Amino acid sequence: MSDKVVFRQLFEKESSTFTYILGCKRTKQAIIIDPVDVTVERDAKLLNELGLKLAKAVNTHVHADHVTGTHLLRSHFEELKTGLGSANVAKSDEKFEHSHKIEVGDISLEVRHTPGHTNGCVTYVDHEGGAAFTGDTLLIRGCGRTDFQEGCSKTLYNSVQTQIFSLPEHFSIYPAHDYRGNTSSSVQEEKQFNPRLTKSESEFVGIMENLGLSYPKMIDKALPWNLNCGVDPS
Ligand SMILES: N[C@@H](CCC(=O)N[C@@H](CSS)C(=O)NCC(=O)O)C(=O)O
Ligand SMILES: [Fe+2]
Hints:
Layout (H helix, E strand, L loop, with lengths): L4 E8 L4 E8 L4 E5 L6 H10 L3 E6 L11 H4 L7 E5 L8 E3 L4 E4 L2 E7 L8 E5 L4 E5 L2 E2 L2 E2 L9 H12 L7 E4 L9 E2 H7 L7 H9 L9 H9 L7
Parallel strand pairs: 3-4, 4-5, 5-6, 10-13
Antiparallel strand pairs: 1-2, 2-3, 7-8, 8-9, 9-10, 11-12, 13-14
Helix pairs in contact: 3-5
Bound molecules: the ligand N[C@@H](CCC(=O)N[C@@H](CSS)C(=O)NCC(=O)O)C(=O)O and fe (ii) ion.
The site of ligand L3IBWBLD has 13 residues, from loops.
């Protein structure tokens, strides 16, 4: 990570979700990626302790397993703007096109559309810090499932190969979840060891058709709330 940036990786244990904070040391403005509703108080307290003011709260996609904390964070940081990839129909202050640069102080994140897990998935790339926040598109030694939310395994395969594996090999990979105790990886490691994405496209499609995962416990609440920026739609 660049020495201009304060970086924190946080974990929410019920959904095994990682939330990331990137703060600009010069302007004290910050961006949060994939906050969870139940850990908003923790995140706001940490931001305040670090002397950071949240300018943007963004998601990598419309999550199916937890309610986003983007809306709740507004009560702590009134001026913050929420953000999401432009292929999503969900409510959001900002919708990012492919190649858009999110600028917060000295932090710059390139938005790369990486559909496949959902149609609206994006990866946020910090070129200066050498890091990619891949959401559920690429997990450590795994990847997001493709059996709901307009998921498509061929599309995911293409997104990873063209938008993530094309990054420099030393770039760190920071996913939205890990279920096995890992915290980060690198482009080089995943190109070499990912048991799904090292396969041919047709083998990959076969693997994804046979994952046999049950639906996330919170899907029936999470989807409608997250389509409404984390607010109860009823
Ligand atoms: N058991 C969890 C849900 C686990 C799950 O389905 N994870 C998703 C990411 S959240 S949409 C996934 O893509 N997993 C891929 C994999 O290979 O594990 C719950 O009930 O919440
Ligand atoms: Fe997901």
